[in-house]
Amino acid sequence: MTRRTDAHPDMTRPGVGAPLFSTWRVGTPERQKETVEAIADTWESRPWPTEGLLGYYLYTGHDGTTLLHHSQWADEQAYEAFTKVHRQERVDEIDTAVPGIERVALERYRHYRSGTRPEAEPRVPGCIVIVDVEFEGPDPDRQRAWVDAVFEALESEPNQHPGGISAHFHLSTDGTKVLNYAEWESAQAHIDALSGPGNGVGSRTPQWERVQTYPGLKGSTVSRYSYALGLVPT
């Protein structure tokens, strides 16, 4: 069966071959809450659909209008099998409970690199920051090189902000995007980091300038979310 969990997903979990991220636009904070509960009710009333799905997690956007979905699959074949057999009935039930949901995008990724601060006591993230980076055309080598450049900038950063917990970089399977799933102590900690002297969370260093002016970099967006729901098999 299906059960709820308060535990955040392990972004480096072994066996996750296909991490997927998608965004829904629902309109208001009230509808965000209603949609989360509709998803929970729909999933908890059914058996867990497949062993190939390791976990399904929901986040409410601080913009008051969006939901972020993160699902961890063993491989893309498991997701495709789910869509053929189980997905539509769940979508229909959710749409009946909360009409008018706009499903903006579903993106397929592969985990590439993670960085976590070594700490005596692990901290529970109070805010998830999603950084979406887009490049001009597909280039898997450029995706990896850009992420490596970010790590060089982080390692040389003279003013590490204490509110940052971890960063988990994913490469889109089409070769055009990078997604950073970053865990922060709180939204205010992230806001404070952005108010520093640099452009973003980093200082004005040559390493960060290289990241921000990387050849082929088209643009990026930053969005903050709160963890709302985790669903896992019993």
Automatic annotation (TrEMBL):
Pfam families given in the database record: ABM
UniProt-listed InterPro entries: ABM_dom, Dimeric_a/b-barrel
Keyword Phosphoprotein included in the entry's annotation: no
Ranges of residues in domain ABM: 30-84, 129-194
Gene3D superfamilies assigned: 3.30.70.100
Keyword Oxidoreductase tagged: yes
Molecular functions (GO terms): monooxygenase activity
Annotated keywords: Monooxygenase, Oxidoreductase
Membrane-spanning parts: none
Protein name: Antibiotic biosynthesis monooxygenase
